[in-house]
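[step 3/7] fold_predict: job queued, chain A
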Amino acid sequence: MIDLPPPYEKIGKERLEELQTQIAVYNETEQRGDAAATEEEAQRVASAMRNVGDSQKDPKVKKEWYRRSEKFTRAANSARKGITKEVESTVIGILSIPFRVAGTVLSIAGGILHGVGGLLVGVGDVVKGGSDRMTNAVAGSSRDGGNVGPAEDNGNPGSAKKTRSKPDTGSLGDNKASRRDT
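[step 4/7] structure written:
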């Protein structure tokens, strides 16, 4: 069964959305330049902040929203712009938490699936008898069939293609020279 959030959380989210809407209305009114209407909208924003505080269970959080409301009410119009930006970023941050959590969960699930996929590929390689890469490495083959031929020379000194030659190691038990080199 799906767990629904407690009623106070739903109310808190609704109050945050109302505050966000009220701030947008305040900003539009302020841009029009009507001082009386702007002040009226400012009081509505302050009231919306108090409503957010009222919807909170934690007394510290409630007190913080009341403090913001008082600060906004007492501030001059020029200072209110900064306060509304701060409050808007807080509201957006709070409202986006479920999406961030969901994104993190999906990212973790994707990482797990990627790891399991790699594990299954490895198991499939073992069941099939080794991957082509492992088979080629064990057999000593390379792209050119395992032959390391002489370098090509076009007549210019230093222009020869340099290739790294591999010593013939035979079986590991018979190659005492390679053990001395290491």
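[step 5/7] annotate
Residues 96-130 form one domain.
Residues 7 and 89 are 24 Å apart (CA to CA).
exit 0
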